[in-house]
């Protein structure tokens, strides 16, 4: 058995650190933190590799591709940083462990299929909202944007409405 | 000195990303079960951490403007879309309950060793491509806005920023109290030990109280 992992931080401390990181981002860059933009840029980049003509004429991807490599962007460096920061924190606290996280009543295969399906919905939804929980929900609300709070309302309402039907995945 | 610096270079992204990822991991947001526990009522960390961060950052932005270090309107404020903002948020809520993450936390899940987070990321890339495929059809609906560019809650309500921040603090305090009471009733919140012990769908051992709230927390 592995050594005991260190406990998660209490939500007040973790939230305060997250808030300071978000404030520092506004002060240094002029915008908030994000995440989904990186995955949209990855999709644009892959499309340009696989189907260059389609991607260059696509109404959504073309603007990403006009400036050269769509991945050469602040959001990509930020996501690389997120992975490094989270990895350092997880290993230092004994919380890194390879595995498939799931409830006891679902197989690993189904869990991965649902993860894929959930990812597709989230990827689509983040383009529709022009951002995700980080970019619109967190950063938008910190900027007191109406959009931030409307986004969070949609996220929380749909999350609670779906909870009953997805319980078996997690518990 | 005036801010923002508008530094969008490599080091700026790496440094701020490291802080962001470290904070999310410390919060326990590399765990899909802890994250989805928000809507199963067993773990209110998503609400607590998110509201704390929003209030700290909003208060900081207010202070920077009060001190004259930053001008109002000098930083990005997202625009409310007529359909996109709410529907997109709702789709993310559903996808979050099915898949276990949102975009930022999936990177934290991967960095914590979760294979399901990597698969979720592949799904997000596919979902973004699907959006691009249907973009020409839905463009007029998707881009329709409601209200002015960068509309803020203080503008909507006709009050000053600090009044809205104070209101948020009251909501956060009440939600925090409610959440703590509810999550205890449902046997939460998830601890790092419970998440890791039960990682690959392992049944909780009978008679243990893993996951129960520790008085010290």
| Low-confidence regions of chain A | none
Low-confidence stretches of chain B: 211-217
Oligomer state of the chains in this structure: heterodimer
> Which overall shape of chain A is indicated by the principal axes computed on the Cα atoms?
globular
The arrangement of helices and strands of chain B along the chain is HHHHHHHHH
Q: Sheet with the most strands of chain A?
A: none
Structural shape of chain B:
globular
Mean pLDDT figure of chain A: 96
Give the domain tally of chain A. 2
Report the strand count of chain B. 0
For the CA atoms, what is the radius of gyration of chain B? 20 Å
**Main sheet record of chain B:** none
Order of helices and strands of chain A: HHHHHHHH
Percentage beta strand of chain A: under 5%
Instruction: Measure the end-to-end span of chain A.
Output: 23 Å
Number of strands of chain A: 0
What fraction of residues of chain B sit in β-strands? under 5%
How far is it from the N-terminal to the C-terminal residue of chain B, by CA?
40 Å
- Tell me the number of helical segments of chain A per DSSP (H or I, 4 or more residues long): 8
What is this entry, summarized?
The complex is a heterodimer of chains A (171) and B (217). By secondary structure, chain A is mainly alpha-helical. Chain A contains eight helices and no strands.
